[in-house]
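Convert to structure. Protein one:
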Amino acid sequence: MANNQVDIKFPKGGVFFIMLAVVLIILFSKSTVTIGPGEGGVIFETLGDGINTEKTYGEGFQIVAPWNRMIVRKVRQQAISTEMNVLSVNGLEVKVNGTVWYEPEFSNLGKLIKTKGEDYERELLDPAVNAAARSVVGRYTPEQLYSSKRDVIEQEILDEIQIVLKDQFLAVKRVLVEDVKLPTTIRTAIETKLKQEQESLEYEFRLAKALKEAERQKIDAEGKAVANKILSASLTDKILQEKGIGATLELSKSPNSKVIVIGSGKDGLPIILGNQ
């Protein structure tokens, strides 16, 4: 049997166009970048001066030269949580758990990356937060850290961080101190003291309430005594007789059988007999 052979012949120049198409596809894929929501990008010019600090690219489809690289970072508000070992004003070591909200300056993203690197959180933000926390916490006692000074401490740490990061192209929006961990013995002593203070305040409240009630009763009794004195002084014999006569007249109108003896009672008041 004869072998049938099929010869496939490319058009003249076909191989060249295929190779050119492959090269174009590779170049296109390397020249396009999609920047997502809440992100920004800066160009690293491989054949130039490195990071281009003049322009920050926004969200969407971007085209760059294939020999350059687009560095994309989040530029929306972000948060980092950290645990720091710091010393109180009396030298006691405490652990502070906190969260920091921060946001890179969009227009200065290139300057931030050029001066602090792509990992600017570790290079810039973490040291600033730790330094501020140590400075602020070192002003307070463990009791103040544990109880009443939380809001003030948060604001002071924020103020310290903002001073350190001034003109560093990274804005810190808020600091939240979530927990302050003290040694067990210190925490127990503070909780016991706070409980005793609360009980003392409660006792003082009850005592003050009782004293006010006693004062009220005293004033009420004195008022009644004065009223009775005035009433007694106003009830003369003549007034009593008039009131007795008036009451007798009212009783005489009653249908019940009765005998009224006029002038036979004490002080000349009527006596009512046979009242049914």
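Protein two, convert as well:
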Amino acid sequence: MILSHLLWVKMWDIMARQINKLNVKFVKSDLAPGKYYDGGGLTLVVHETNTKNWVVRTTVRRARRDIGIGSLKYVTLAEARKKRDEIIEIARNGGDPIAERRKSKGIPTFEQGALEFIEEQESSWDNPKHRQQWRNTLKTYCFPVIGSEPLDEIDSAAVRKCIEPIWSTKHETANRTLQRCSKIFNWAVAKGYREKANPCLGLKETLPRLRSQRKHFDAMPWSDVPEFYKQLTNSDAFSASALRFVILSAARSGEVRHALWSEINDNVWTIPAERTKMRKEHRVPITAEMGRILDLQRGLDENLVFPGMRRGRPMSDATMCKYLQSKTTPTMTVHGFRSSFRDWVDEYLQGNGDIAEACLAHSKGNAVIKAYARSDLFDRRMEMMCSWSSFVTSKTV
């Protein structure tokens, strides 16, 4: 009798361990893509993107079903086990867990879900124009087609109906709309609103293949820059000095237009992280020619180095661009001078690509490379920018 009791306790212990195989520390660790079974039908699915989702496998009216119950980001291990038990209990009693969840939780429509997603995320979007574009593209191309459909019932064919009509005629808009839909459906899966996979996955491969339509910024050939720079030095135009500074610094137009005197110290212009594209502080070497331009700008505004016509406001991008195009071609862009600089490094200096990339504040390689490449190579960049300055001003001497 005692032996039988001990055997039963041992079997119960084994069954318990088979059901609850995972632990909190393990599921939060850095896991390789794959499936990790907790037992009792509960599985943690780790995707290539490192997102982690809970899935419960059970039998609903003689049909096997995989039911998504949310992301690890929102659903803890204990909550996932509780949901698993609830789902299995409903299925065991002949019910439909999906139908029950819809009744209790209320699955939002695509439009409701999209607006909820935007509301959650837009505080992290710095550009007001970006926020408006999200709403406009979804309102124009998606809401009329799938806006009233429940998030968990939309399939790839439905999403395709939104994208296909503009795929060839407005390809860039179509591509961005598809990307935005994909993010919304990933969010829906993570929130437990949807058990099926993201319907946008693989959809692009089913659409017509188009010839590359990517357009690079129109850039002035590096060999023409000295002659153009000479024209700028002889100009009294309000934007000429800012344009000269853009060329010499190889910085982005917005970084120059919003430059503050407080950011400039001796021979260094420190652009704060919030104003750089890579969201990382960038130190720009100030050459002698750049210093002369700064001397001309002093006293025009207390804070801004290159103020606009309106007091306290920076020069507009349109002002610089319009002036540039009036002196060159209607398609020339201010941003293109960064390409001119990069081409000059490759052809004139014949190398030093890593230094040039650092001058342009471009991200270097993958995460491993970034971990070791912590130096901003300031001294070597100063040498390169001085050489660039000497080349650019060669016609003005």
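Confidence is low (pLDDT under 50) at residues 5-16, 365-374. The chain has 17 helices and seven strands.
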